[in-house]
Amino acid sequence: MDSRSETHPIIADAQASNGSTKRQDIIAGATDVFLRLGYGAASMEGIAQAAGVSKQTIYAHFDGKDALFEAIIHEKCDELRIPAVPSGDTDESLETVLFRIAQAFLKSVLSRKNVRLFRIIVSECGRFPELADAFYRSGPRSAVAQLARYLETARDAGEIAIGDPVQAAELFFAMLRGDIYMRRLMGIDTDMDEAEAANYARFVVDSYMRAVAGATLAV
Amino acid sequence: MDSRSETHPIIADAQASNGSTKRQDIIAGATDVFLRLGYGAASMEGIAQAAGVSKQTIYAHFDGKDALFEAIIHEKCDELRIPAVPSGDTDESLETVLFRIAQAFLKSVLSRKNVRLFRIIVSECGRFPELADAFYRSGPRSAVAQLARYLETARDAGEIAIGDPVQAAELFFAMLRGDIYMRRLMGIDTDMDEAEAANYARFVVDSYMRAVAGATLAV
DNA sequence: GTCTATAAAAGGATAGAC
DNA sequence: GTCTATCCTTTTATAGAC
C-alpha cells in the first residue's frame, strides 16, 4: 500500500509530494457518494467517477465495496470526537454551562452532515453493526460521559439533586434532541436557524434546571 | 382488480371465499421481506418466494417495486394510529395518567416492529418522502396532539405551568425516548423488559413533573 | 499503480401460454 | 389471474496491457 515503486521515479515523486493523491481522491469521492446515497444506492462506478479514477484503481487500494464503506464511515465517526462538550472548569454557573453545551450540541447534531451520517448508521446497522458501535462510542456516548462527569461535580457541590449522573446526562441530551431531531432524521424539517436553536436551548435548560433542582431521585 | 372473471367460476369462487388470497399472500410476504431487509436489499424474486407466488403475479397486482413498497409501508404507518395515548378523562391524578401514557409509549415505540419500521422510514426518506410524512402524522404527531390536548386542560385547571402545550408534549415524549431509543435504532441494545421500562417511566415522569411544576415558561 | 475491456451474476420488468 | 421462460440493464469484481 505504501510501497513506492522504483520503476517510475517521476510518478513516485508525484505521489510522495502530497502522499498518495489517488488514495485521497478515492476517499474524498467515496465519502461524498456514500453520505449522499447510502451504501446500497452507491455504485463503485459512481464513486470512481466522483473520485476521478477508474474502478480498478479503487480495487487496488481497498478490498471491495464493503471495506471501502467501512473505512469511510469509520473515519466520519472518529471525527465526531472532535467537537465535544466544552469543558466547564471556570466559575460559570451550572445554567450558563448547560446553555453553552446545549447550543453546541444542537448545532452539531442537527447539522446536515451529522444527520446524513446517522441515517446511514441506522440503515446499515444490520450489515455493519461495528459501525453503529463506533458511532455510538465516538458521538453520543462520549458526550454523555463528559457531561456526566461535570454533573457529578455539580451534585457533589450540592448544586443539583440527581441520582445516576449518566442517566441525568442522557436525559439532558434526549430533551435537546426533542421532536426536531426525529423530524430531521425523516427529512421533514428543513432547518433551524441560530435564533430558533437558542430559544429551544433556553427552553430545555430551563426545564432541565427545574427537573434536577428537586429532591434526590431514586435510581 | 376486483373484476372476477366469468370464464373460470371455480377459481373465481376460490378467490371470493376469502377475498383474493394471492393478493393477501403478496402483501404478507412483501411486508415480511421489506421490514426485514429494507427497500434496497429486498428483491422481487425474494418477495415472490416469501409470498409463494410468481413474480408476474406480483406485477399483476402492483405496478412495480416502488408501488408495492409504498403500499406496504403506508399500511404499516396507518396501523400506528391504533395504539394511541389512552384517554385520561377520569379523575386520576396527572402523574398517574402520565405514568400510564409513558408505559404504553415505551412498549410501543421500543417494539421490534416499530423500530424496524422507523429504520426503513429514515433510510428511504429521500426516495419516499411521502412515507415519512405518513409515519410522522400517524405516529409521533398523533401522540403529541393527544397529549397536548390533555396537558392544556391540566394547565387551564392550574395543575401545571407550561407555555405551548404542543412543545410540552413533545418534551415529554423526547424524555421517554431518551438514549435507549437511539440505541435501539442503531441495533445496539437488545431489549428492555417490563420492570426496566416501568422504572424508566417512573424516572421520566418524576423529572417531568418537576419541570412543569415551576413558573410559567416564556415561549 | 493505473487504465480499458470484460466477465459473471443479480435484479426489475415483460412476453406468451394456459 | 397465474405461471414459466426470457430480456435488458446495472453492478461487483477481475484480466491484461502499459
In angstroms, what separates the terminal alpha carbons of chain A?
A: 52 Å
Shape of chain A: elongated
Count of discrete domains of chain A: 2
Oligomeric status: homodimer
> What is the tally of helical segments of chain A?
11
- Determine Rg of chain A (CA atoms, Å): 22 Å
CATH topology (level 3) name of the largest domain in chain A: Tetracycline Repressor, domain 2
Indicate the topology:
Two copies of one chain form a homodimer.
Chain A: H1 9-18, H2 21-41, H3 44-51, H4 55-61, H5 65-79, H6 94-109, H7 112-123, H8 129-156, H9 165-177, H10 180-185, H11 194-212
The first copy, chain A, binds a DNA duplex (18 and 18 nucleotides) through helix 4.
Question: Your description of this structure?
Answer:
2 copies of one chain form a homodimer. Chain A is an all-alpha fold. Chain A folds into 2 domains: 9-76, Arc Repressor Mutant, subunit A (Orthogonal Bundle); 80-212, Orthogonal Bundle (Tetracycline Repressor, domain 2), CATH 1.10.357. In chain A, 71% of the residues lie in helices and 0% in strands. Chain A is built from 11 helices and no strands. The longest helix of chain A is centred in the middle third of the chain and has 28 residues, at 129-156. Chain A binds chain B through residues 38, 40-41, 119, 121-123, 125-126, 129, 132-133, 135-136, 140, 144, 163, 167, 170-171, 173-175, 177-179, 182-183, 185-188, 203-204, 206-208, 210-214, 217, 219, and chain B through 38, 40-41, 119, 121-123, 125-126, 129, 132-133, 135-136, 140, 144, 163, 167, 170-171, 173-175, 177-179, 182-183, 185-188, 203-204, 206-208, 210-214, 217, 219. Chain A binds a DNA duplex (18 and 18 nucleotides) through helix 4.
